[in-house]
Amino acid sequence: MNEQVFPQQPDARGKNAARPPSGHTGRIVGRTVMWLFLLITAILTLFPLLMTLSGSLKTGAEMMTGGSLLPAKLQFVNYAEAWKQANFARYTWNSAFVSIMVTAGTLLVAAMAAYVVDRRHFPGKSLYVTTQASMMFISVGAIVLRPQFDLMVALNLNTTLWGVILILISAHSSTFFMLLGFFKAIPRELDEAAMVDGSGFVRTFFRIILPLLTPGLGVAGLFAFRHAWNEYILPLVFTMTNPQLQTLTVGLANLRYGSSAAMQIHLMMAGACLSILPMLLAYIVANKSFIQVTAGSVKG
To answer: At a CB cut-off of 8 Å and minimum separation 6, what does 109 contact?
Structure first.
């Protein structure tokens, strides 16, 4: 009896096991491209900071000649000299006062406005939101400086820092839309339950809704603080006749030239490094809010 011999079929599983799937290779390429992009972004971000730190430890002659990236000898005396010449103690207090007041006022005004827009219907609501959006994308710049200054003169606030604070608080469009997104994530049932229990609209906002907005307030507050801390034009215009009210950004610009009209770039960089410290402290304080917002986004 003749036996039929069938050709042996290759093992499909063994063939597939011999070469890795194409999807795995695609993931490796994707991760490599992503890490290269992040590395290049980190280098471009950190390079100016490293150059500023290096320049703050050089002498004026080394900065002018530009011979090397690293200082020949660390000049820590630059920080003491910058603190003395720029009147850092006074200017830092002015900047801190302006930034804290602007942050508190911006969060209060923007939070109340966003809550009303999200929870209530009123005539002109669409026009108000459109106006807020236009203020984010249309920059009028120096055109409004004169009207703003004339307004503060009429209010007798042109000789104080309160004029600068009120103008910066009025520029709260980005904070408004940021908090509006957080309000939309809070269920309306909480408002309805509070009103059933006899709580009014204002009390519900301050006692129930606002505490739930703490992560959003931390993130928005950090951006508002940074904007106020880095503001230069408004404090420059409003403190021309009263140098004692100048903020740190204006004082740093005065370090550019010394009494002999010689450029002092090394002192400017030392002052810039000192001015970064309050922002780092603010980020450390608000870091918990960033983590909560990120965790909530991932969970959602």
So the answer is: 169, 172
Domain that holds residue 28: 12-65
Q: Two tokens at 233?
A: 């034009």
Q: Rounded distance, CA 83 to CA 18, Å?
A: 68
What is d(CA 147, CA 145) in angstroms, rounded to the nearest whole number? Answer: 6
Number of domains in the chain: 2
127 and 51 within one domain = no
Residue 2 falls within a domain, yes or no? no
Give yes or no: residues 167 and 56 share one domain.
no
Q: What is the CATH number of the domain that holds 257?
A: 1.10.3720.10
Look at residues 20, 44, 65 and tell me which one is the last residue of a structural domain. Answer: 65
Question: How many residues make up the chain in this entry?
Answer: 300
Are residues 133 and 111 part of one domain?
A: yes
- From first to last of the 300 residues of the chain, give the pLDDT tens digit: 455 555 555 555 555 555 555 567 878 888 899 999 999 999 998 888 888 888 888 887 777 776 677 787 888 888 888 888 777 888 889 999 999 999 999 999 999 999 999 988 889 888 989 888 887 776 666 677 888 888 888 988 888 899 999 999 988 888 999 999 889 888 888 888 888 888 888 888 888 888 888 888 888 988 899 999 988 888 888 888 888 888 888 888 777 655 554 567 778 888 888 888 888 888 887 776 665 554 443 344
What is d(CA 209, CA 190) in angstroms, rounded to the nearest whole number? 8
